[in-house]
Design a protein that fits this description.
By secondary structure, this protein is of the alpha+beta class. Helices cover 52% and strands 11% of the residues.
């Protein structure tokens, strides 16, 4: 049996992150019980949906709730079906930003098995706040008037796959070597750490108000219930959420300092570093926009209604904005030294 597993792992695949753009939709044959049930009930090809929000990052809704994921860690067996789709008519940057912001705003929202099942059954269909994968994607686009399916609240991944508004992308997967697979498994997983911290905060706030679904709700609770502020501020601290940014700085200091980047440069990793730097400067403006937006949001909230929770978030997002600026500057400076032609080709204007 171990030999069979090892043979399968030799040919594991993943989505090539360079093949996707923000707003693209990824559809897969989910391995979850709910996913298998949906495919069996509807004879569908796919049963899970994700939306790309940034280079290498997707957001989806699973039994763990709405969460962001690193696409490089999402692995598929050779025989598993994986599709990607793009809107046939390109959205303006402003409308695309609204789509992505909606998906991000839903992070933490709980998953509804009952409503996911109702999407393939006749009967009553209440319009509730909880999410499931295809609802999240369809609602994100419906937010800007793009009706991918007849009913964005109750739809299936396979209905998204058959939407006439979407164009399938070809050649989106790549094989992952056993060596790289082992390297990924040995690395810390910042995304999993983020999920754990977010869930700890939301679980704690839901003890105060069970109706809370996501961090937008948490913001409102902090504003409307100053008597809970210190408890919620403590949840942010104890969960480790406020210090998650330190993980990448510690593991990859070369992301933030060009001399540190030069120190790890070898002929063997030159192309990998070049690819990384290209991807970073390609999102010079849009990549850190969410940090700048959240910093201004929390600053304004704190000016109007000072809270300990909000003060902590101002400090956090101020740090994230500075880190992002260092990340972009480091990539730009390294390319300027080694491949100045890449700056003209890849720098986001």
């Amino acid at each position: 049996m171990q030999a069979v597993i090892a043979e399968v792992e030799r040919y594991m695949k993943r989505i090539n992150i360079d093949a996707l753009q923000p707003g693209d939709i990824v559809l897969t044959a989910s391995k979850s019980a709910a996913g298998k049930g949906i495919r069996a009930t509807t004879l569908a090809v796919v049963s899970h949906a994700m939306i790309c929000v940034q280079h290498g990052s997707v957001i989806d809704s699973t039994g763990d709730g709405v969460q962001a994921r690193n696409l490089q860690r999402e692995l598929f067996k050779p025989f598993e079906r994986v599709y990607a789709f793009r809107l046939r008519e390109q959205l303006s940057p402003a409308r695309l930003e609204q789509v992505i912001n909606f998906a991000r705003s839903e992070v933490g929202t709980r998953y509804s098995v009952r409503e996911a099942v109702r999407s393939v059954l006749p009967g009553k269909r209440p319009r509730e706040r909880r999410q499931f994968c295809s609802r999240l994607v369809a609602r994100a686009y419906a937010r800007v008037g793009v009706q991918l399916v007849a009913d964005e609240d109750y739809c299936t991944p396979d209905q998204l796959r058959r939407s006439p508004l979407l164009l399938e992308l070809k050649g989106i997967t790549e094989t992952v070597s056993a060596q790289e697979l082992a390297a990924w498994r040995a690395r810390p997983n910042p995304v999993a750490m983020t999920h754990a911290a977010q869930n700890a905060i939301l679980d704690g706030v839901r003890k105060l108000d069970p109706k809370v679904e996501n961090f937008t709700d948490v913001d409102q609770i902090v504003r409307n219930h100053p008597e809970w502020d210190l408890q919620i501020a403590a949840l942010f601290r104890v969960s480790g959420y406020l210090e998650l940014w330190k993980t990448d700085v510690q593991i990859n200091p070369w992301h933030y300092n060009v001399e540190a980047l030069e120190a790890v440069l070898t002929p063997a990793n030159h192309d990998e570093i070049r690819t990384h730097c290209r991807a970073v400067i390609a999102e010079t403006i849009s990549g850190g926009q969410r940090y700048r937006t959240m910093l201004e949001h929390h600053r304004q909230s704190h000016r109007l209604e000072p809270r300990q929770t909000t003060f902590q978030l101002v400090e956090l997002y101020d740090q994230l904005v500075r880190n992002d600026a260092l990340l972009r500057a480091t990539a730009h400076d390294w390319l300027e030294r080694h491949h100045p032609e890449d700056i003209d080709d890849y720098l986001e204007q």
